[in-house]
Specification:
By secondary structure, the chain is an alpha/beta fold. It has a single domain, classed as TIM Barrel, CATH 3.20.20.370. Helix content is 44%, strand content 11%. The protein contains eleven helices and nine strands. The strands form two sheets. Strands 1, 2, 3, 8 and 9 form a five-stranded parallel sheet that branches. It has a four-stranded mixed sheet with strand order 4-5-7-6, with helices on one face. A hairpin with a 7-residue loop joins strand 6 and strand 7. The protein is globular, with a radius of gyration of 19 Å. It starts with 13 loop residues before the first strand and ends with a helix.
Amino acid sequence: MNDTHGRWPNDARAAVMISVDHDADLALLSGAPAIADRGKTLSVGRYGTDRGIDRLLSLFAELAIPTTWFVPGRNAERHPAAVRRIAASGHEVACHGDAHEDFQTLTLNAQIRAVRDGADRLRQVTGAPVRGFRTPAGEWKPGLGARFADAGLDWSSSSPGDDLPYRHPGTGGVVEIPVQYELEDHQYFFFNLEPPFPTGQSRIAPYAHVLGNWTQEFAAHQRYGLCYVLRLHPEVTGTPGRIGLVRELITHIQAHPDVWLATGSQITDWWRTNHPVNDPGHPADLFARLRSEQERAA
């Protein structure tokens, strides 16, 4: 095993962040606006609000764990009671855009507006601080991170570019808590018949196989002292059967006493204090320098 002494609080071997994206039907609508009149299709997303949120909240209360929920601002306005229950249960609420926009299609100014408006709506509904952000879909434009402070944000969990937190160069210290596709429920389970999501059809993986993937990844993250970020959706793993899958995984994680279960802001605060700069030669710094050189040459 590599030396991870002092990387995490109380000399924990690994950090674990349980995160939930409360997309409801906004993810479907932003991806395919033409389905606005398709009640059956939209109900696939609305199921999370109607049933999945409370199942997840009940499980998290039973296991006494902190979690971070990423919520589009307009979902806070459309489903205020549900979002207030999340905050009132002691969980962190973070920004997930305003209307679950595809950032790939937005200008920089439109991205800034989506982040600002989404965070403002969340604060108005919950009365709680909003510090974190997760891109709904698509890519950031260069310069977005430097405007996070204008919206009161100081960390992100959007990029799969590492398995430890790092700082985004040129942003005033915005911390990234990386996510990995294999630790997201969407890739394994999300499915709609018509119109097809995913486009290629079909995808409903065996539960035991998914649990095996997630526990094997946890073992590797613990071995190497990394930051394990699970990404759930109420409409995907808030079902009667899959909630048991989440319970098994978290119970397995809790059986290891040398693991730190924390929110995104807790991880950010620890990392910023104890790791004030990126490791020498970190890819984020190299890419930023390359972009700067290309801009100067243009």
